[in-house]
Sequence to fold (204 residues):
Amino acid sequence: MNIISIVICVLILAIAIFALYRFIIVKRQNNKLNKERFERIKELYEKLESGQELSKQTVKPYAENLLTRETTFKLLEEHNKINLFPEEYLTIIKGAESSLANWLEFPTELDACPDEIEHIKRVTFDFDGENNLVHYEVFKYNVNEPHWASKDGWCLGVVGPYFDDSKPYDFAQSTFSRVDSKFEKITAEEEAKWVHENISMRRR
Fold:
């Protein structure tokens, strides 16, 4: 075996080891995150499962929290108690905001919930030339020090696609953020278009 073949084999082995290491680490981190997420809504979950009477005031703190809002809606939906979910959070924008926060919390993404998040606008595309519209909700967000992304300032995040008949907590399969997409440098329309073309359309 010549030296070139040896080098190639070593590189392939190194890449395989790194990939395996990353898979194990990310899986471990995701398992830890899932446990943390359950702990956040555990009390509400147990009350619903045991059939305890709940009030809107009991549910409200869960709906206010970006990281528990989406799960709270799903739990109430499963138990036919949507009437307890606060109306001010029963909108596509509030659902999209929670979806983005939960996506950003993954270790492979921002690995944190934004300290600030603001809705910028809805961007709409005719995706097939026949006036069939898809909508994307675009947000800006930032994190405080000492997080590594704090130096980046406001970044953009996109949630969608939604359709004219979409409901507030429908699954938004193209929730995405290029963490280096700066609010000052890229418009909401440009970022939504990137997500539409590179995420949504490739999943068709």
Remarks:
- The two ends are 46 Å apart (CA to CA).
